[in-house]
Each structure stands twice: as C-alpha cells, then as structure tokens.
Amino acid sequence: MSSLSRPVLSPVEMFGRRLCNRLAVAPMTRVSAHGDGLATDRMKNYYRDFARGGFAIVITEGTYTDKDASQGYDRQPGITDQRQANSWAPIATAIADQGSLAIMQLMHAGALSQWHDARRTIAPSAVPPLGEMMPAYGGSGPYRFPSAMATTDLAEVRNGFVAAARHAGRAGFHGVEIHAANGYLLDQFITEYTNRRDDEYGGSVSARIRYPAEIVAAVRDASPDDFVVGVRVSEAKVNDFNYSWGGKSEAETIFVALAEAGASYIHVAGEGRGFRESSSDKQEPLSTMARRVTGLPVIANGGLHDPDPADDVILDEHADLIALGRAALATPDWPRRIANGERVVAFENAMISPSASIQNTDAWFARKLAHGVHG
Ligand SMILES: Cc1cc2nc3c(=O)[nH]c(=O)nc-3n(C[C@H](O)[C@H](O)[C@H](O)COP(=O)(O)O)c2cc1C
User: Which region among 147-161, 205-219, 277-291 has the lowest average model confidence (pLDDT)?
Assistant: First the structure.
C-alpha cells in the first residue's frame, strides 16, 4: 500500500483539533525520574522524539497522583505538587511544539505498589496480589499485603486524581488518561477477585465500575471543557495475563459506565495480548464493542506494530486510533519512517531488561551502534 493512502496515517478531527494521523504512543513506565518524582531533561528529549517522529498523540508513562500510597515504583515520576508539575512543563511544551497532543497518564498502583519507601499499601480489599514484583521496575519477591480502603481513603484518592489532573493542565498537557487497566488500583476495583467489598463499590459489575467511573466524573467536572479526560481499561493484568471479564454484558457495562461518567475516549489496552484476543467475544474485539456501545473515540492497543494490520483496524472501524508501545520504544519516529517507506527497528526485550529505564534503552542503542548496526 502506498504510504500516503495508509489509514493509520490519515488525519482526523478529534478532541476539537486536527490530529495529523491515527497514532498514539502507548503509556510506558520508564522508571527514569529523579528520586523525588521530578521529571528529567532526558525524559523531555525522550518524549519530544515521539512527537518529532510523527505521533499525533503522546501519552506519558503512568504518573503517580498523591503522596500517600499511589506511587508504584522507585524513579516513577509524580504529579502531586507544583514542583513536580513544573518539571513536566518543558515536556508538555516539547510535545505541543511539534503539533502533537500531550496526554498524561494518571496512575495509582494500589496493591501492585512495589515502591520500597511506601508508607502503606492500599487496595479495594485486603487481598494479596497474584504474582511477584517486577524486576524491570526495580522490585523483587511477593507484593506487600494491602489494607482495604476506608471511606476516607476513597475520598482522598479521588481528590488526588483531581489535583493531579489540575497540575497536568497547568503544566501544559492537553489532557489526562485515567489508568484503570493492567491490574492497578482502579482495575482492582473492576476485578471480581480483588474487590470483595460489601458496600456500594463491590458486588455486581455495575458496583465494581462505580469507583473508577466516579474518578473519571470528578476529573471531568474539575477540568475545562476542552481538556481531554480519557480512560484506559484492559482485561489482562501485569500480574495475571489471562484474566477475562465475565462476558460481553460485563464488558458493555464497564464501557457504558465510563462513557456516562464523561470520558473523552476509551483506550482498550492489550497488556500482554493482541488487540483481537478478547475472550469475551472472538467475533467482536473489545475496542469495536467499546465504540459500538459508547460512540466515543476508541484507542486500540496490543501487538499492532506492523502497519498493514494496524491499517485494517482503522479501515474496518475497530478503533479510531492506535497506540503503539514497544514499537514506539524501539522506533520513536515510527510514523515518519512508515510514511517514507523506511525500515523500522524491531523491538527486543533487552531494550527494557534488566531495567525498563530510558538509560537501559540508550545503552542498547549505543551497543548496536558500536557494532555498526543501524535501524
Ligand atoms: C516498558 C513498558 C512500560 C509500560 N508501562 C505502562 C504504563 O505505565 N501504563 C500503562 O497503561 N501501560 C503500560 N505498558 C503497557 C503498554 O502501554 C502496552 O499496553 C503494551 O506494551 C502492549 O502494546 P504493544 O504491543 O504496542 O507494546 C507498558 C509496557 C511496556 C513495554
């Protein structure tokens, strides 16, 4: 296919502006901030390179929302106060200067916090997480035993998300993405086996989605009309790749609740799975269902690193936008290269192993360059 007629490269009007193509950088934790959660100069260049490379939307790594229990990792950036917001401002500007949409992902780790200095670990219910901490993000051994969130915790975490979104807006971001995917706090509410609450936030799927939806609504209400408030959901989790929602009606309930809460878009993450591998209904991928039942813009994600299948997702109206994770990490100028018919660098696990840090990826590229291999 001629690169110019590629659907993934076609412009679109969305979020009150013209996006130059259908491509977003998926949120990727890089554990590369200063110890106090401030974003660094290296992070600025890292994010600027995606915008310069042609991504219409750049979504940041999951950024922690309060100083109590939200932080997941050492060297994770935060957006909890003016200093942290100031450190992000040059990054938002660097992205916007290239004409790209700058979205900050807001994340509360909940029971999956593996930050060693955490004062406490909270979750919907006192259920120990499956699996073990992730070495690439600086953890090892079993997760800590979380305590169940009290009513006051629910209010404080909600306030943290709202304050974080305000800081992100003041730092120059065009919007935020509420992280309700991959097994972190808000996903722990959605998931039956981590949510054993007997109040209005536990039980049926309508009750389990209530708290994530309240967070979306609270951020929406506190934000200017043109501020984007997206939300990311997934079936799979970093500590449970095979988890599935309880069928089609459960998935529909989740999407509708988030749309009614005022989400600007729904991002369906394929953490560890391809975008089609929705076990709720093999005939209709989750992104297609999200589009059908909400009418909102939908971002599909998961294994869409080859341009032809990515084109099909857009062409067949399974999604409006596509987010690339590992492919963007390996080739920050993926859109520009595809448009020019140039080769891309294939992702290799060593780029994020033993550490997911930017420095580790830089070292990988330096080694390749030393051996005369060019992308
Ligand atoms: C190094 C790394 C860090 C990630 N960090 C996040 C994160 O902070 N927030 C999130 O929602 N997903 C995160 N993910 C998941 C990706 O956004 C994406 O869903 C996953 O890589 C699958 O998409 P892909 O096949 O395009 O890589 C991360 C993935 C990788 C590889």
Answer: 277-291
Q: Report pLDDT for 31.
A: 98
| Sign of the torsion angle spanned by Cα atoms 255, 164, 92, 336 | negative
User: For residue 147, which amino acid is it?
Assistant: S
Atom 7 (ligand 1): residue with closest C-alpha? Answer: 28
pLDDT at 374 over 60: no
Domain 3-370, second-level architecture: Alpha-Beta Barrel (3.20)
pLDDT digits (tens, 9 = 90+) for 307-337: 999 999 999 999 999 999 999 999 999 999 9
Q: How far is the CA of 270 from the centre of ligand 1 (A)?
A: 8
Q: Exposure string (b/e) for 47-84, b if CB count within 10 Å is 16 or more?
A: bbbbbbbbbbbbbbbbbbbbebbbbbbebbbbbbeeeb
Residue to mutate (ligand 1; options 75, 79, 326; most atoms within 8 A of CB): 326
Expressed in angstroms and rounded, the spacing between residue 141 Cα and the centre of ligand 1 is 22
Q: Closest Cα partner for 298 from 284, 315, 317, 311?
A: 317
